[in-house]
């Protein structure tokens, strides 16, 4: 907790950051509630809120309280006109959105692709959409930067995409390209790590400080681990690549790829093939799986769930998380029978590690990666002080 007692620009920046982060992550608060949440006194809160208003970062509105004695404390909320551009390139589409500081998605476009996106084309498309949006839905907004969620390992030191194999990217400097194209700061991260951040702050893992997150997308399976409230990066920033682990497969008949890794066996492409779809977003896939009465479709989902359960049990035994969150097509597999998947995981997990374990589908759904990408921008641009 940041408290008073030290003068200087550093402490003031920290206090401004604390107030802004509180209303951004926890939602609008009255000045009185901010006083309680931050430990700062009322006059300091009033002064800080005034400066944040003048900076165009928060807005105040009258309290909804009725029938209370005395004058109600104004409600402080993030200014929704402050936005970050969030970008998620995949093998079949480019997802681009403007995410407000209040968490709302102001505008979003999913641009289908018939050929693999290159880093250069990705930067060009984003720059084009941003230019169009600033003449339209973002005309009254302030863009503070762009965040890119990439399906592959990203070097923490400089944001270079080491390899996104399904996209065909190697040593890709997408951040520098996009910054040159837009003129605004860019932050690049692994898609699963950013999805984990979003679910930890705003979704299914909120309130839990030890989290394992697995994301299933068109490019495979990524993952991330949060330990004690901090994202586990590893020596180079590549931690959490669960999709590259060798799966435990008890029945040889369940194997589809010789010497394959987890993402070869638990696969969105295999699910689409089972329901007879050449392509489709998660919503279309979920509808097709739940509507199908074909025994072959049920057999494929059961096979993938068996393999996934073993992978999750291994993660639970190694990491002892409070919650395992599944996103993308993994959430679709889980939602087919969440209690059944939970039981299958617990059957393979050490009793001590299973005691307080919770299995959950990502609450933010298809916007989780975009919210995470935007959060990386907000954290760097607006919350630099700790």
From TrEMBL:
SUPFAM superfamilies: Actin-like ATPase domain (SSF53067), Winged helix' DNA-binding domain (SSF46785)
Coiled-coil region(s): none
Domain HTH marR-type, chain residue ranges per copy: 18-68
Listed InterPro entries: ATPase_NBD, HTH_MarR-typ, ROK, WH-like_DNA-bd_sf, WH_DNA-bd_sf
Family under the similarity heading: Belongs to the ROK (NagC/XylR) family.
Protein name per Swiss-Prot or TrEMBL: ROK family transcriptional regulator
């Amino acid at each position: 907790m940041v408290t008073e007692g030290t003068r200087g620009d550093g402490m003031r920046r920290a206090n401004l950051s604390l107030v802004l982060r509180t209303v951004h992550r926890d939602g609008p608060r009255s000045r009185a509630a901010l006083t309680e949440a931050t430990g700062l006194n009322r006059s300091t809160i009033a002064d800080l809120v005034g400066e944040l208003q003048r900076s165009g970062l928060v807005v105040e509105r009258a309290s909804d309280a009725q029938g209370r004695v005395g004058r109600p404390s104004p409600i402080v909320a993030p200014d929704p006109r402050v936005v970050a551009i969030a970008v998620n390139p995949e093998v079949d589409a480019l997802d681009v959105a403007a995410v407000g500081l209040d968490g709302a998605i102001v505008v979003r476009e999913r641009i289908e692709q018939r050929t693999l996106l290159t880093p250069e084309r990705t930067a060009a498309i984003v720059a084009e959409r941003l230019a169009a949006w600033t003449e339209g839905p973002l005309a009254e907004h302030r863009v503070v930067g762009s965040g890119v969620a990439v399906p592959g390992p990203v070097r923490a030191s400089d944001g270079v995409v080491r390899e996104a194999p399904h996209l065909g990217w190697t040593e890709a400097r997408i951040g520098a390209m996009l910054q040159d194209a837009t003129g605004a700061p860019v932050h690049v991260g692994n898609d699963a790590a950013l999805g984990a951040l979003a679910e930890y702050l705003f979704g299914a893992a909120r309130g839990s400080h030890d989290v394992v997150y697995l994301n299933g997308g068109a490019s495979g399976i990524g993952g991330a681990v949060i330990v004690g409230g901090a994202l586990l990066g590893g020596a180079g920033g590549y931690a959490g690549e669960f999709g590259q682990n060798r799966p435990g497969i008890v029945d040889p008949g369940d194997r589809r790829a010789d010497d394959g890794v987890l993402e070869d066996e638990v696969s969105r492409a295999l699910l689409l093939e089972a329901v007879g779809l050449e392509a489709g977003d998660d919503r279309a896939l979920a509808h097709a799986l739940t509507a199908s009465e074909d025994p072959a479709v049920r057999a494929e989902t059961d096979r993938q769930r068996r393999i996934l359960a073993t992978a999750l049990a291994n993660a639970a035994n190694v990491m002892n998380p409070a919650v395992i969150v599944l996103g993308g097509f993994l959430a679709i597999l889980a939602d087919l029978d969440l209690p059944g998947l939970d039981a299958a995981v617990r059957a393979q997990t050490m009793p001590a590690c299973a005691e307080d374990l919770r299995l959950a589908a990502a609450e933010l759904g298809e916007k989780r990666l975009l919210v995470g990408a935007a959060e990386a921008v907000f954290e760097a641009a607006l919350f630099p002080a700790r």
